[in-house]
Each structure stands twice: as structure tokens, then as C-alpha cells.
């Protein structure tokens, strides 16, 4: 029997089958990394945005084009630095070496955080109870 169309069944009229959206549902995505890591990441993204914005503004006479200068506002730099965290490309790459170095360092930071978060999240979702696993590994070491 050939399938000719896909169908998605979504329950209607309340929360009969779908979980209720709550703050705890979204806060669980923050658990794999410690709170200090998230604050440090936020500060690093702000720093990358400030450095790129300053490099574009102060190098505009020598290295940046007028279009780059127009498009690289403070909000654009902040949004672009966040986009590196979610592995998106910059809308416009600056022309100067200093700004490109800042963009590259922000991109490398984004790749490292993305890989680290993904690995920790997978291990966090795989293990049901960490204390039980620790007790089991301690028992294995004692029996050896």
C-alpha cells in the first residue's frame, strides 16, 4: 500500500495529549550548563558585538565601505553575535582585519559552546538518574 499523503494528528480542545507549556519546560534546556557559564556566554557575546561595532566605526575611513558602515549598527552587531551562537552566518561581514578577527573569534566561541552544549545535553537526556549510576559504578569498583 503506497502512502500518498502525510497526516499529523493534533489533539483539539485542551491539553488532552499535549503537555502544557510552562517555564519549567524551557528552563530544562538551561540545565546542562551551569548558570555561570550562561552569564559568561552572554558577556562574551556582548563583548564580541562591542568589539565588532567599534572596529567598524573606527576603521570606516580606511577599510570599511559605506554600505558596511550603514548596515553594522549596534543592534545588527548584537544580533549577528547571537547568530554565531546558533550557528548562523553574519548578514554582512566587515571588511577590516580587526572586525573580521572579532567575527572569527565570536564564530569560534559559538562553535565551541554549541558542540559542548550538544554533548552535555545528549548525556544529560540519556542518563535517567545520576546518583544511581554513580552508586553502580562505585559498586563495580568495589567488586573488582
UniProtKB/TrEMBL annotation:
Residue ranges occupied by any Ionotropic glutamate receptor C-terminal domain in the UniProt entry: 36-132
MF GO annotations: ligand-gated monoatomic ion channel activity
KW Kinase (keyword) present: no
Source organism superkingdom: Eukaryota
GO cellular component, one term: membrane
Keywords, ordered alphabetically: Membrane, Receptor, Transmembrane, Transmembrane helix
Residues spanning the membrane: 37-60, 72-91, 103-127
Protein family membership: Belongs to the glutamate-gated ion channel (TC 1.A.10.1) family.
Name by which UniProt lists this protein: Ionotropic receptor 25a
Biological source species: Amphibalanus amphitrite (Striped barnacle)
